[in-house]
Write a structure and sequence with these properties.
It is built from four helices and five strands, in the order αββββααβα. The protein has about 150 residues and is of the alpha+beta class. Strands 4-3-2-1-5 form a five-stranded antiparallel β-sheet, covered by helices on one side.
Length: about 150
């Protein structure tokens, strides 16, 4: 199971999806000097008077689902087509994540009347998507080899 390269790629997908929870995805800078940190489940005020918090759950839940489905896909190593479907699901979910990320970013930017600076954590889902794509290619390559060997017999 661990000998296959797609297992390592899927472990990296899980690590990147979980890693995105621990780093801020960006910072909103309001015109009055207030800074808001954009994280997995909340946008909270870092610098300024008072404390404002905007709660949301969609982006964090999508990342959690991606991490969970990649983890489940690791243990489907005997069923390569099911494993590849998990990878395709993850790719679609990560594309949906970035679409929701953009929508939420624009809405919050307009609400706070602020500019936005990207953070280190916003790259983790992109890395997860790259590793997921590499895992999908390796799975399909293995499936092709097995079908060719069966055809030769």
């Amino acid at each position: 199971m661990i000998q296959r390269i797609q297992t390592l790629y899927l472990l990296l997908v899980v690590a990147c999806a979980i890693g995105a929870f621990y780093f801020p995805w960006g910072t909103f800078f309001a015109s009055d000097g207030t800074a808001y940190s954009f994280e997995a489940f909340v946008v909270q005020q870092e610098v300024g008077d008072g404390s404002a918090v905007i709660h949301f759950w969609a982006l964090g839940v999508v990342l959690a689902i991606c991490a969970l489905s990649a983890f489940v896909a690791i243990f489907c190593f005997k069923k390569r087509m099911l494993q590849s479907r998990f990878c395709i699901f993850n790719l679609v979910a990560l594309l949906g994540f970035y679409l929701c990320y953009l929508i939420f970013l624009l809405i919050t930017k307009h609400q706070l009347d602020a500019s936005f600076g990207f953070g280190f954590g916003s790259a983790f889902p992109l890395l997860a998507g790259v590793f997921d794509f590499l895992a999908l290619n390796a799975i399909l390559r293995d499936e092709n080899k097995v079908r060719n060997y069966d055809r030769i017999r």
